[in-house]
Amino acid sequence: MMRSTSHTIRTRRTVKAAATLLAGALALSLTACGGDDDKSSGTDGSPTAKESGSTLTLPKLNGTTLEVAAVWTGAEQANFKKVLAEFEKRTGAKVTFVPAQDPIINFLGSKVAGGQPPDVAMLPQPGAIKQAVDKKWAKPLGAEALKEVQKNYSQGWQDIGKIDGKQYGVYYKAANKSLVWYNAKVFENAGATEPKTWDELLSTAQTVYDSGVTPFSVGGAEGWTLTDWFENVYLSQAGPERYDQLAQHEIKWTDPSVKDALTTLAQVWGKKDYVAGGATGALQTDFPASVTQTFTGGDQPKAAMVYEGDFAQVNIGQAGAKVGTDAKAFPFPAVGDTAPVVSGGDAAVILKDSKGAQALATFLASPDAAEIQAKLGGYLSPNKNVDFSVYPNDVQRKIAQSLIEAGDDFRFDMSDQAPQAFGGTPGKGEWKDLQDFLKNPTDVAGTQAKLESAAAAAYGN
């Protein structure tokens, strides 16, 4: 098991209400609003801002030096450094960002072995938190940090940072991983409409293809993008109970429900000329490029649509496109009865228990820290006391509102719950097996067998 018992019970709640809320809110709002300069609520139905004003008190840490490790790069790293700069300003500490490599748990292992672990690490998987605790690297949150977490997070977000009842993780960053972004001009030229079901998605793809543009961009060079595709299809098609069982390896990857999901995925991945560059090209395309190539080239980009989470907005901006006008989005279409709601996130975990590290965790658990990065775009916070008005456009404000209103009824990214050897390592496990499936989507049974073999080894059962 890679999460606490309390989380396992909690996440087995139905997601139907949350899915309906999220899909409905996004369907009504994502395509209709640019609003980049509209920071306040109003008659357009945008969220009402919460009461602002910080009461957070941090200690003076003059002369203290801290290191924070994360795998973030580019704009995401640059924006997080601005959050760290505010912590420095308030406390007098000096904080250094340490770029880490995937899988971060291996990176941390080498640092620990060398006697130089960072003070805090941003871990992208609950499974990695569990490993850090099992290896006795992670330290539980102190009283002030724990107080801030309990004040600002729903029980569900608290629970996924707990191991054996103790709070180790502060979920600083969240993701809505159930979005499909599209080039608005391509859709307009093709006469394409936003799909609500998988069958409608295939019909929309054909309409786009007939207009002369390849329908999908897939960042297959990074296996996590492929696991996200699978998880959305599987959650909607197989349902939340099966999703939880597969996430814990309580059912095998040779289960018929996995066969159904892979067969469904093959309707896109295996369709000739539906994926930009074909399978070979997709496997050479990293995530940032998969987004930017959808929004460069005017109305003749390399692809019309790209599936990924709200964080794709950073890369959309790098392509020179504007969210809400050039780039729009719709909820991942329902394959079964209900559209999927898949979330992910990154948790701050203390590796060196000190006054400075505890203070930084306390700051990252506060709305003060989250609001700094929220203003910069491409970021979503699960902190329920973040003022929605700080998000830079109406699209992201409503994505944030939907996440908070979903409360505890969400499903966390399945591969992030798995042992890292299976769900979070380049060239291994689920990442590699789905890359191979992208290359040969007719081999459903062989892919299932490889997935099950890798999962059994990683879970030890």
Automatic annotation (TrEMBL):
Top-level taxon of origin: Bacteria
Region annotated Disordered, chain positions: 36-57
Pfam family, one: SBP_bac_8
Keywords: Signal, Transport
Identification of the protein by name: Sugar ABC transporter substrate-binding protein
Gene source species: Streptomyces aurantiogriseus
Recorded family membership: Belongs to the bacterial solute-binding protein 1 family.
Signal peptide, first to last residue: 1-34
Annotated PROSITE patterns: PROKAR_LIPOPROTEIN (PS51257)
